[in-house]
Write a structure and sequence with these properties.
The protein is built from 10 helices and 16 strands. By secondary structure, the chain is an alpha+beta fold. A hairpin with a 3-residue loop joins strand 13 (302-306) and strand 14 (310-317). Helix 1 packs antiparallel against helix 6 (206-216). The termini are far apart. Keywords: Amino-acid biosynthesis, Branched-chain amino acid biosynthesis. It comes from Setaria italica. One of its GO terms (biological process) is L-valine biosynthetic process.
């Protein structure tokens, strides 16, 4: 399905700036950022709606929205510059996920504009964020998949809190369960979820070419995140694919045959930092609001929007923590869920998170 959607853009020469796919047992939600005129993008929406398994496509460009981008960035740090870098981490409300002798890995989840503002300070290219220099109204965010609520809200006056639909028109549907489909148990056959990091040339259609390798060999992509890499003109694709070590090694070999693929790394058996960003809208009236906020505080989720009948939360964590939060909130009614898919970087410190989770905390 990912290959079919990417193909619609590739055949029309569109370069996908950012793509996030959140998958669960039987549904998927695609969030895509692509540039183009309103007329042409309307034609793309029509073509996407013709795909058999596409339920709904919404252009959110001119709609009130809560948007976030997630980035893991590894920075070369000299010891005498570490206090300065840590100051920037606090200013941009980032989190340190790994610290080695000469590198620092940082997690940051903010609005697109604020993400671009960090570029000069953290030393990565700001080219993917042209809205820092001039507003480009033709950049559209397409949401493809299942939506629980049709929003007809008034324009926001600014910030991250927006007016929402009236209480009388509200209805809550359980549209996404907490079954994420990632294989975590030890399988005697060696079948498990593999995390691949692919560095590619950034040009229209490259995603379609890469995902075509997966689809032609019958691989089921469980998670996919695409975004700008550290150098201008390159993109990094992070994907989770089930398979044995032998079959994934053959897949990596096939990916290296593609002209526009620079690097392919299988992080599965190496120490790596992995994060996903989830935005979840929960049905919560005045009576249930305090309980939902208490749960959010326990899971260190941030409140990004609130109305008289819903609360929208943002959580950046690993997949296990996301599953637990979603299960805790199911009793109140989950309206909508959007996920980025997994992003990952190797831990230069060599700390193995899976190994540490095997130890019980002292009482």
């Amino acid at each position: 399905m990912i290959n079919r959607i990417a193909g619609v853009f590739a055949r029309r020469g569109y370069n996908i700036e950012s793509l996030a796919v959140g998958l669960n047992k039987d549904k998927a939600l695609f969030t895509i950022v692509v540039s183009g005129t309103d007329k042409i993008l309307n034609q793309v929406v029509e073509q996407l709606n013709k795909l058999v398994n596409v339920i709904k496509v919404v252009d959110l460009t001119n709609e009130p929205q809560v948007e976030r981008e997630l980035m893991l960035i590894k920075v070369n740090v000299e010891r005498d510059k570490l206090p300065e870098i840590m100051g920037l981490v606090r200013i941009f409300k980032a989190e340190v996920v790994d610290l080695a002798d000469d590198t620092l890995t940082i997690e940051i989840a903010v609005r697109r504009q604020k993400m671009g503002e960090t570029a000069p300070f953290l030393g990565f290219s700001a080219a993917p964020y042209p809205d820092l220099e001039v507003t480009i109204p033709s950049t559209s965010r397409l949401s493809t998949g299942v939506d629980a609520i049709n929003q007809n809200s008034n324009e926001s006056s600014g910030g991250d809190v927006y007016p929402v639909e009236s209480y009388e028109s509200f209805s809550a549907n359980q549209i996404l369960d907490a079954h994420w489909g990632v294989i975590t148990d030890n399988d005697p056959t060696g079948f498990c979820s593999h995390t691949l990091s692919i560095l590619v040339n950034d040009f229209p259609g490259v995603l379609n070419v890469v995902t075509g390798v997966f689809s032609r060999r019958g691989y089921n992509i469980q998670s996919l995140a695409v975004g700008p890499a550290e150098k201008e003109g390159t993109s990094r694709i992070t994907t989770v694919v089930p398979g044995t070590d032998e079959s994934i090694a053959k897949l990596v070999h096939q990916l290296y045959k593609l002209i526009d693929v620079y690097e392919v790394h299988d992080f599965t058996h190496l120490p790596f930092a992995a994060r996903e960003l989830m935005i979840i809208k929960v049905a919560a009236n005045a009576a249930a609001r305090r309980d939902v906020l208490d749960i959010a505080q326990i899971f260190e989720a941030q409140r990004v929007d609130i109305s008289d009948h819903t609360i929208t939360l943002q959580l950046t964590a690993d997949i296990d923590k996301m599953v637990r939060l979603q299960k805790m909130l199911e009793q109140y009614g989950i309206c909508e869920v959007a996920r980025t898919g997994r992003v990952a970087l190797l831990r230069e410190s060599g700390v193995d998170s899976n190994y540490l989770r095997g130890f019980s905390l002292p009482v």
